[in-house]
């Protein structure tokens, strides 16, 4: 930051002093005293670095927004030049409670995305065949009328399931789900089953919530199953708190096959055989159990041990003492020796870590999101066994422990709430996966090829399935087939491998060009962050009112909120379909809802404390959010499972013998700060309200038992009795499953400066990182005669790719790894030239070859930097060669691959990708055979347990299986 001396003084003056350090006066409470004080955000002065050595002052408006380059949604401050109204840079927003003024490299790179010379500025319509990459500019009106007409016809003809919205980076909490609900389509499809479903599933089976919120800053032991500091979930907000915890003296234990940035900071770095993580965690749990080192009172009060005893040990007394005996027996087999044999980690090391866990007590923060959970068959048991440690130590919802996400997240009520859809879409939720955490999105091409349905309108929205998903060539086959996909609309800020196969490419905004509202579980607090089109706010501060973001965004880039409202009006122009009413103004009945009213309503009526805070500054709640970009709703939320249910809520109560408490009260009467996803009502229609613990009724957890579910009666009832407890599932890359000569390939990590598809228009990031060599240990490389830079052929079960070797001791011997954030490619024609290699893409029948024709090259543009591009590499697109490998329980794609690594063959070229999609089909069929479909295993004639979370949950009536199938035959 180039703050002139005079401004530094004023910043320092307005800061508060604390513990001898200078603190920023806003909610970040960090020690960075040089943040521009918020009182001066309308006219902040800095010297123009480009004018150096002359001292030229620049005057800026500092306008907050949030970063859109990963899920963390860190606060950004856009520096808008008051003279030119150009954004000159992005820095951190100290008013943001999650990121506290800090960003990773990807935040400031938002500026590259705004100014990218290759960005899509206008709506484009396909001018040749799908995939030919020939385009013509069209008006928004033309595109929107065509799309709306098709959706209207599909809904009118009761083909609601032919409308699908497939999201990559949501960046918001529920806006689009409400749009789809208003259309009455079960059309929400996400990327989550290629990302975090297994991570989520492990948490859901325990808590009824699907994410953790670890309190790293206050932990004594931080145990991470991931490369968390660089690429994990909530990368920057968590990373800074992990380092805070370390600064307090916390120990850091990291399980990672690679020496990641995170592992390099660890006190104990364990590089186990991929997929064996649960074996280690169970050995640690066993140590705690056998040595009586766990929190007996916590287990007694909050585990569903009584249900376990009644169901599984009916001949034994249902006493806690009997349960403890059973527990010792159940886990006795998971010795340190067993874990060593499975993982290759010395028993003594595992014992050391177990002692650290025991010593941490409740100050044990743990986290698994992608990593091992995303890589392996049964990866969800990695998360489940990790949380077993928290559950044993009572490290749940206490300082330094791990919280459920919903306690540390705040989602306000919107202006309109449409009813749940009356549809069930089997293209997203097929019967084979009744327990899937999220939509089976990566199977879509195969489900379409099976003939299970077709799509009239398919939106890919800030999503690039051809490149991001496994088996991308099957995607190309499916989405180029117009009998399967009538219209593909790509809503994207950048060219992508999937956009080439669209009919319309519609430009949507980057982080400084759109509205979104969100809240994430970054620490023990609740906050909301507000993304906004910064030039709209800049104009407003100058007294100009902007109606439509296209007035201020580059070209005709449009924000999606306005787009969805407009599209919904076009689908139902006269309101007769019942859609339009959900997009109408409340203050001006019959008029189109505006974004200012939408957010103004939420901030005024649904965010506790915000109206008062705004009033104190003489602002409306909307003005406050536009000025500061974030609001802290609550700090130190603390445990919610122990919160007493007020007497007034205990109406016509029914208690089960296990202590589940049901009530007839309509809804929570108390100010319930956590929205509780409600499990099933009882036979009398009462809703679960809490659990009885030692005579008191407390909230508990939103599981069927109301307690932490060590034992899942649901898993047992739905055909998986062997997984009813936290246990160990051998991965598809377990040594027993590998054919001779095969080794595991780890593709689940990314470089910290890459952003999925949107890196390709971030020149600073591309300059830093633009290749993805194959990590291979020297001992392994020696057996193949490989040196760094040698070309290697990596063969999967459906094809191969050709990449360069990187010989490094930073990986476990016998395992190879390759970052998945590289290998961007474009066809001849438009594309992101600074990070996409130009390729040819050919096929004969099911055999495909993608070959790099040209690497990245310098080019002339309005940005002089593009003529200075010095790199040619863009990496290798390995994901094309991966078959789909859906976990039969969680539905998560199991990313790790069994591969053969060889020296490249004559004729192989760097970047080659060869795939036979007939083999993709075989792999799909093999993994499908592992499932236990609802049609045969459902205990009650439904498609899915109703209590399980589901995005855009449809009406209860849709859960009934067609034709009365399932075990019950109802
Ligand atoms: S961690 Fe980095 S990319 Fe993610 S939101 Fe924060 S600044 Fe943006």
Class derived from helix and strand content? alpha/beta
Biggest beta sheet attributes: 10 strands, mixed
Radius of gyration: 27 Å
Low-confidence stretches: 1-20
Helix % is: 25-40%
Counting H and I runs of at least 4 residues, what is the number of helices? 29
Mean of pLDDT: 93
User: N-to-C terminal Cα separation, in Å?
Assistant: 67 Å
Strand content: 15-25%
Bound molecules: iron/sulfur cluster
Number of strands: 36
Give the overall shape, derived from the CA principal axes: globular
List keywords for this structure.
26% helix; alpha/beta; 970 residues; 36 strands; single chain; 7-stranded mixed β-sheet; disordered N terminus; globular; binds iron/sulfur cluster; 10-stranded mixed β-sheet
Compile the SSE list and pairings.
Blueprint: H1 5-14, E1 16-18, E2 21-23, E3 44-47, E4 57-66, E5 75-81, E6 87-92, H2 110-115, E7 124-126, E8 135-137, H3 140-156, E9 163-167, H4 175-183, E10 188-190, H5 197-207, E11 212-214, E12 221-224, H6 228-231, H7 235-248, E13 251-255, H8 261-264, E14 268-270, H9 277-290, H10 296-302, H11 305-312, H12 320-331, H13 336-343, H14 347-360, E15 364-367, H15 371-375, H16 380-393, E16 402-404, H17 444-449, E17 455-461, H18 465-468, H19 472-479, E18 485-492, E19 504-507, E20 516-518, E21 525-531, H20 534-541, H21 560-571, H22 595-605, H23 610-616, H24 621-628, E22 630-635, E23 654-655, E24 660-663, E25 687-693, E26 696-698, H25 713-717, E27 743-746, H26 763-768, E28 774-776, H27 778-784, E29 791-795, E30 799-807, E31 816-817, E32 825-826, E33 837-844, E34 847-854, E35 897-903, E36 913-916, H28 917-928, H29 934-937
The protein binds iron/sulfur cluster (SF4).
Iron/sulfur cluster binds at residues 67, 69-70, 72-74, 99, 103-104, 106-107, 235-236.
